[in-house]
Amino acid sequence: MAAHLDRHPVTGQPFASPVPPGTGWPGDPATAQTPVARTSAAVERLARGARGIPELDARISVCRACPRLVAWRESVAREGRRASFADQPYWGRPGPSFGDPEATVLIVGLAPAANGTNRTGRMFTGDRSGDWLYAALYRAGYASQPTSVAAGDGLELTGIRIVAAVRCAPPENKPTTVEKATCAAWLDRDLELAEPRLRSMLALGSIGWDAALGAARRRGWSVPRPKPRFGHGAEALLTTATGREVRLVGSYHVSQQNTFTGKLTEAMLDAVLTRL
Ligand code: SF4
Fold this sequence. Notes:
By secondary structure, the protein is α/β, with parallel strands linked by helices. It is built from nine helices and eight strands.
């Protein structure tokens, strides 16, 4: 039976959900030939072997190493869409990193949202968390526009790149320990490729904080002991294996839970962005 197709909200091109790699989705880094990781060992091998950010992004975007997350992301894309997006195609694949390949700052997020990145194929795009984050990045001069509605909307980031602890939307936003450990190899390679230029990192939430510290340790960086504690505005100075200092700053996550309740305000987010 032919796959059902829906039209992309920006380009109008019809797509199946999940979106097959290399079929013209705006910003899709992969092709039909991009190698697919199906085990944690393959994630490690393909991450280490990625020769640059475009290849790394492509490999991340087709990864199938975590069976529970693959099943969840694809079932949301096929049958579990939010009613307001029911007529839109859903990406249904891992969210590759997004932003400036020459970035001096990394933002380390938690994981894609089921109806956000899992629908749009771009980090923090198409949900309330993204509205908050990109508006703040625009105010701080990192983003070319204050909104991020869909891939293909013209948004560009300068000097900053968004990565994540986990690249697939997890049920209830809760990845397991094994899933976090499996996905960490992608983050490690992202950090390695960014390292020569890196000045600072902003960790969103305690999972982003722990993921950034874990990746730094695995890269052989020196991390203060005892382990720096996460908090909004927390800061830790990390030292790369070549002796350069990289500042890690913590922020409450831009989740609706935090922004609706006032736990995280625009002023608080603006203040941490000035310290990067
Ligand atoms: S969570 Fe990460 S390692 Fe697991 S399937 Fe998604 S991209 Fe691959």
